[in-house]
């Protein structure tokens, strides 16, 4: 059975890649832009097929077998000395969970995009990029060695860049795209260093071999710690965690479905996946584990505070994404591997739902994104309101939604970390409260209260291909908590102990408290903050804790001023100077070449004098 | 006796040459040059080279100088040329060349007198016979080459000196 | 038949050097092409004198052979040069060598 399905494994990433090739090659055959329907069928169809293939494999092989493993070796990729790398795919339940998210949610977002992007000039280009993204993401997830994973890692980074700057005619979008690319590149460089370190230390890049080697390495080995921290650097960059989180809010410049797919559901969670995939390595180093946990906790809080004061609907969601990935990192840091991956899944469901609903709102309001121009949309967009409310509830982890199960699992595990009350757990609870507050603030500002300035022109833009994904995602966001992936064979972890009942109670109460606060403050949509101006703290939060300002001062300005000093290329002046001297000498010789025969004779004479002088002296 | 003749000839040659380079009239200069050449012919005789002396008189003082005379006549510059020469030969034009050449002369003399120990050797007489034997045995190839050079010079001079109608100085030769 | 000893090698070479330098001064000072040609003749003649003197000193006919070649060279050179002077004068109506500077850099 496994042998039968192994060849199909390669088709999962291959199909979207084929779709990409087909989409970019289409005008070659037609010599004109193909109709939107063709692009949509190719783009959505390829992802649909790989989603179906994934489901098929899941159904037949994985469903009742938690320790199922599927692997296929396609071909030798690199062979240099001891470095032997192949295009090898490896699939276990961790990979399968990711695969289901990427192809499933990816397919729904593709479908939604077919409606959302209707009428855009770059329709075909959009689907080409999106397909390339899905292909790269699938390679990342299924890679059996770190370099292949790195290939997918860079591929999704490229697609992220291309899609953030999709509407490239607006230079601000290009700036956002470059920012995303450069900031994540810092993390990627750290990751590459980590790869090199791992290879030089263990002589292999195979993930399983590395994990085995790291698990048997002596505890708190310096090399292992360093490698884990470098990999964490890569994960931090890709997943927009502190201190490399600044790119994600700006990445909202891309089309909203892109934000849903890349910057909420899949790519930004690649860091979580990487750490989960390499968990024996991280387990071997206490320093790395606490670093992961602290990074997650800090990001969770900082991004949460920022999300509370944003005025752009997509930026609220962006900060909330950063914050939720902070939860996942926190979970990884306390060893709640299953919880982290489970939260990754549910987050993909409800955040994709939120982004897509926000996309519907934005489209209905003719590309208005300011929260304070909205309001009262509950009556005009009832379907979108329903979806958005489900998404917010799930995000805030209200009881019995998908987000509740995963977040609860994380918080319980955090409580057990260090055996009881501790800072990480407290941060998690505080984060839950903040999450409840900002998600319902968002809901109230958009859908409740009086009509905002933009609400008057509201026209429901939902159509069939958009409502279907929204409905499916809404169901998933509500009941996705029942779809716990059987990861107990992938992650060997101690069974959950029993926390006191009040801990459970606090975890449930915190988001509800946030909801109540939001209800009190924003129910009428007339924000008191809006009328009295912003306090200094709110300004700080609004700017994302001033990280952009700090980096601008700390990194960008010194660099630009250095560049300004070096405008004429100081090193190059050596070569320019040589050229200048040569040119001057040339001019000198050129003037000596004056065409006067007597002058030449005088030169002869001088030469003869010098020559004879040498003879006389010697 | 030989010494007296040598010094008189040498002085004549030097003075005549100096007159050549400072003269303002081309014909005068040419006549001084002929005097100089004749004096050198005498010196050749003193050095035991009568054949060279004869050639000096016949070819140099005779043929070549006649050629130059012809050209000076054809140019026919007249008195205006003398005035122009006067302007060109202002004293300040002499300083630089004189200095350079003086240095060169000093160097040459230094080099010549650095080999002084052999100078007391006798001078040998070399007659036309020996020269002829050397020319047509050992140097026969060079003689042939010299004859070709002369032929080429003849043809070249004939071609260059043809009096063609000149449209503009840049116009290509239309043959 | 050996002659007297007085006109020795050094005296002859000294005379040759003096004559050559006089010719060189002429080359550097004069601007009239005709004079330049005469000065060239003086220089080549001085060189020929050095050959003959050296040949006499070393009892070799090579000196006079070289003199004959020099004289041949001078004849050919003067013939060509004078033809060029004629053309130059016809085209520019001057004999100033400094006017011939079309090859300046």
TrEMBL record, chain B:
Report the superkingdom from the record. Answer: Bacteria
Location(s) in or outside the cell: Cell membrane
Q: State the reactions this protein catalyses.
A: a quinone + NADH + 5 H(+)(in) = a quinol + NAD(+) + 4 H(+)(out)
User: What family is reported?
Assistant: Belongs to the complex I subunit 6 family.
User: What Pfam family is a match, any one?
Assistant: Oxidored_q3
Documented EC number(s): 7.1.1.-
Q: How does it assemble?
A: Composed of 13 different subunits. Subunits NuoA, H, J, K, L, M, N constitute the membrane sector of the complex.
What topology does it adopt in the membrane?
Multi-pass membrane protein
Just give the chief location class: membrane
- Show the stretches that span the lipid bilayer: 6-22, 29-47, 53-73, 94-116, 136-161
Protein name, per record: NADH-quinone oxidoreductase subunit J
Q: Which InterPro entries does the UniProt record give?
A: NADH_UbQ/plastoQ_OxRdtase_su6, Nuo/plastoQ_OxRdtase_6_NuoJ
* Keyword Protease set for record: no
What species is given as this protein's source?
A: Microbulbifer thermotolerans
Under the heading PANTHER family, the entry gives: NADH-UBIQUINONE OXIDOREDUCTASE CHAIN 6
Q: Its Gene Ontology molecular function terms? A: NADH dehydrogenase (ubiquinone) activity; oxidoreductase activity; quinone binding
- Give the gene name: nuoJ
Keywords attached to this entry: Cell membrane, Membrane, NAD, Oxidoreductase, Quinone, Translocase, Transmembrane, Transmembrane helix
TrEMBL record, chain C:
Q: Which Pfam families match?
A: Oxidored_q2
Q: Which reaction does it catalyse?
A: a quinone + NADH + 5 H(+)(in) = a quinol + NAD(+) + 4 H(+)(out)
The record's top EC class is translocase
- One annotated Gene Ontology cellular component of this protein: plasma membrane
Name the UniProt key words of this record, in alphabetical order: Cell membrane, Membrane, NAD, Oxidoreductase, Quinone, Translocase, Transmembrane, Transmembrane helix, Transport, Ubiquinone
Q: Where in the cell is it found?
A: Cell membrane; Membrane
Which Gene3D superfamilies would you find in this protein's record?
A: 1.10.287.3510
What membrane topology does the annotation report for this chain? Multi-pass membrane protein
Main localization of the protein? membrane
EC number(s) given by UniProt: 7.1.1.-
Residues crossing the lipid bilayer are: 12-29, 36-58, 64-86
UniProt keyword Cell wall biogenesis/degradation, yes or no? no
UniProt GO BP: ATP synthesis coupled electron transport
Q: Which GO terms describe its molecular function?
A: NADH dehydrogenase (quinone) (non-electrogenic) activity; quinone binding
Q: Any idea what job this protein has?
A: NDH-1 shuttles electrons from NADH, via FMN and iron-sulfur (Fe-S) centers, to quinones in the respiratory chain. The immediate electron acceptor for the enzyme in this species is believed to be ubiquinone. Couples the redox reaction to proton translocation (for every two electrons transferred, four hydrogen ions are translocated across the cytoplasmic membrane), and thus conserves the redox energy in a proton gradient.
In which family does this protein belong, per the annotation? Belongs to the complex I subunit 4L family.
Binding partners and assembly: NDH-1 is composed of 14 different subunits. Subunits NuoA, H, J, K, L, M, N constitute the membrane sector of the complex.
State the protein's name. Answer: NADH-quinone oxidoreductase subunit K
| Species of the source | Microbulbifer thermotolerans
